[in-house]
User: Fold this.
Amino acid sequence: MGLFRRTRSTSQSTEPQVGGSADQADDATDPGTGAAPDVGGTETSDATTDGDRASARGPFDSTQVGERGPRVDLGAVWLPGVPGMELRMEVDKKTQRITGVAAAVGGSGLQIQAFAAPRTEGIWDEIRSEIAASVTKQGGTVDDVPGPFGRELIAKIPATTPDGRQGVRPARFVGVDGPRWFLRGVLTGKAAVDQQEARLLESVFANIVVVRDQSPRPPRDLLTLHLPGKAPTAPESPVGAPQAPTFDPTRRGPEITEIH
Assistant:
């Protein structure tokens, strides 16, 4: 794996901070087997439900895998590592809490956040509507379409180009409802507009393992992430006081970089 960076921000951004170019990497591996997954099968039968598709492909709950395998332990998320991949941890400046992780490889980015969810129902439908409303309010466009993980959003978000002109930034929002957790990913760069370029990071997302702790948590409370090999020493927030995430894809904060 390549560079590891820590991003410090004043808000919980939903946009990956994609850095410099990285070499194209091989596909991630299936849970616990070390074998390369078949990432070409992004299409499923019309008779397959979104829930069946998600459970068959992943992301996975920790109860579904026998061992961590070739994944980086980030606490609530075990992230598959691929050659040339660069990671950035997003840190809330006020609380010093890690709010997300962003992976970049080959000109594409994937930002990941894990949340608590109700035991009996998912929250992706509701969150998807909120993201769509946020993008539209900012003057962007968004389409709600079927994808390899179920319903997803294809968005074009207003942005300022390096030369000061107004342009758009494409993004794909994907989400999976798991047992008492919800995992959301945002694909940017080449992966947001090119299906072939997206295959590697789709495979990474599909092979994530979510480790849901046993603590009671209100819906949308961020699950605890930590730096690789550096588990937190104390609880980060009391039960009943969730740190509600913001879904504004255009906000970002200053960066502090650590290279390991």
Residues 14 and 249 are 5 Å apart (CA to CA). The chain has a mean pLDDT of 76. The first strand starts at residue 4 and ends at 9.
